[in-house]
Amino acid sequence: MSDHTTLVVGASRGLGRGIAAAFAQAGAPVVAVARTASALAELAAATSGIEPHVADAADAAAPGMLIERYQPRNVIVVAGATPPVRPLHQHTWETFSVNWNCDVRIAFHWLREALRRPLPPGSRVIVVSSGAALKGSPLSGGYAGAKATERFITGYAQGESERAGLGIAFTAVLPQLTPATDLGLSAARAYAERAGQSMEEYLQQLGDPLTPQGAGEALVKLARAEAAGLAPAYRLTSVGLQPLP
């Protein structure tokens, strides 16, 4: 993958960090994008082949500028906000809509710019959504709906790529809840308490956890797969990717 420059948007923590490291270890030049300079510097120091770039992924100007500068063949969008964890009636509209105003906004701008540039034929755009898009997330406000919308608009982008003959493959990936990230750990604690279970009991129900390293390895495999065989979306668990219709 030495000629496949990969932009990882939201690379400073959690699954994004693991994905950036996995692509670099696979030989791809990686541009790690996030707002936190110290976390990016730490990532770049720990893994060769990673160039940190501090930027706000939600800035409408960022996708065009970064795509123009780095000319990536892979764009992976992982960035998003951590939702406030509370039941529906304890949300305000502002807290309920956090992920609509952040996660969906980020995905929209990056998908739009990938089509408008456009990226070169053969490029891959992977939007990391959430398994909550399939089953809901009653303690996370609008999170599940926002993540479902990320999946929808990734599919819309694939349709536009096909209509225009751009040769860009757009794919959504929906990871399972995992205590290996700060977001997942916070959610797991809240759902365990809601169910009257200990953390150990609740996590046992989830099975083997998805790790950032495992997520990264799965996405490298996805980026290497033949475009003709790609599903529009995938569920991602500790055992790997499972295609969704």
UniProtKB/TrEMBL annotation:
Which GO molecular function annotations are given, in alphabetical order?
carbonyl reductase (NADPH) activity; L-xylulose reductase (NADPH) activity
**PANTHER family attached here?**
D-ERYTHRULOSE REDUCTASE (PTHR44252), D-ERYTHRULOSE REDUCTASE-RELATED (PTHR44252:SF3)
Family the entry assigns: Belongs to the short-chain dehydrogenases/reductases (SDR) family.
Q: Which residues form the Ketoreductase domain?
A: 4-183
One Pfam family name from the record?
A: adh_short
Keywords, A to Z, come to: NADP
| UniProt entry tagged with the keyword Chaperone | no
| Protein's recorded name | SDR family oxidoreductase
Q: Which GO terms describe its biological process?
A: glucose metabolic process; xylulose metabolic process
**Which InterPro entries does the entry link to?**
KR_dom (IPR057326), L-xylulose/Carbonyl_redctase (IPR051737), NAD(P)-bd_dom_sf (IPR036291), SDR_fam (IPR002347)
**Organism lineage:** Bacteria, Bacillati, Actinomycetota, Actinomycetes, Catenulisporales
